[in-house]
Amino acid sequence: SFIKSAVVQKIQLPSRHEIILNLRNLSSANSQNKKLYININPKYPHICFINDADIKKRNIEIPKNPPMFCMQLRKYLNGSKIKDFKLVEYERILEFYFDYFDEIGSITRLCLAIELMGKHSNVILYNEATKVIIGSIHNISKDKSSIREIYGGAKYIYPPKKDKSDILNVSYGTFLQIFKEKKLIENFHYLYRDILENIYKFSSDEKEIFDFLQKLVACDKMQFMINFWGTGENINSAIDGYFSNILFEDILKAKKTNYLKAIKKEYQKLSQTVQNPPECDKALNYKKQADLIQACMFQIKKGDKYLHIGNERIELDETLSPSENAQKLYTKYKKAKTAFEYKLDRYNSSKEKFEYLNSIYFNIENAKDFEDLSGTKDELIKLGYLKEDKKEKNQSPNIAKTEFKGYDIYIGKNNVQNDYLISKIARDEDLWFHGLNFPSSHVILKIQNNKKRPPKEVLEFCAKITKENSKAKLSGKTSIIMTKRKYLKKPPNTYLGYVTYKNETEIIID
Which pTM does this prediction carry? Predict the structure, then answer.
């Protein structure tokens, strides 16, 4: 096989749950490089070979400062050859054996034990002869476990044997009793919840299930997994395909949740603010009363408490003259007007920020992959919602592009991409599409120098793309606006991706 006689060329620990061993086999039949991926996360425990596309899909990032266990593995395993590997019987432990040459040339056989055991999963490097542990991903002291300690210098021992049976060595009667108690997993080796749930879907006959499980345990496990999961041409592609999809979906969902949480508090606060715009009725009422007093000055005598005009009753200060009463109300009007204008400025500022956060909210929810989220992450860092991670950033965003009827169409998936589209990619005659009064991607239709206005079907296609990448994607009739790039304006000191426009055309999309 490829693994036997493969040499470890590079070791990486992307996280406290992951290890990547870069292997090279120089034999004539299998002279190639492969990446062995080990994941001991209780939610995704698996081992398989991965490629660069898998690394991107799993969002694997290599830290600049490797953890201690990574340094230990590099010290003992870099350049070492895998001499053998085995699966411990009745355990979810896979062991790789290496020959380590020390400073004086002596050979020591080391074992890298990969334990996929739920929350107790671990990767442990130990000396095969002395059983002394060199290091592990997770150290376990006697304070954490009175049964099995794992740390550098301790003795490596296997987990306590579980009181389970081999289904090949029991009678149907014994199986039936355990089956009725719904305790198959607790009593038999090799049986797992996912496998049983799928078997139950296809059969409810106890004898048929018993016969099938016996065949399952007796058969070649690798071939069974290929047939059972039904994906890929071998077990590696089956495992890789299954877990990479789960990891992709879970990590993407977790990132979205984290980013939304970062802006949620202020987003909700601004949402309440924009629903309650300031009112100027109080100021206008003061002015109205002052104007009425001025108009009816001849009817008022000093000492009057009220001025009655139709249904209107205006309270007067009897110690003041009519003119002074009017002046008093004008002063109140000016103060109330100033307060209103101040509140209005704050309201407009809050509304503008809310609309900007609303676009970020949409970009996060609408993201299809990690690349769509990367620009939004940079935005949130600049705004102070997330901490700077000090990782190198791309010089330019990778913007989605499609083609229709010979026309190139660009789609911005976040405000960083939207701003780059407007600033760097779009030219004056290119057409810009956006949702009317709701968040959406910025869509740019490139107009070549030798082409006139695109046909109606091309414009409608761009409008449909805009709707599909908007908050109104599930709505019925939707208004999409279109204008030339030269009619867009980026106001100074405004939010990223924000533009004003004129000379727009409205396109209605079902």
Answer: 0.67
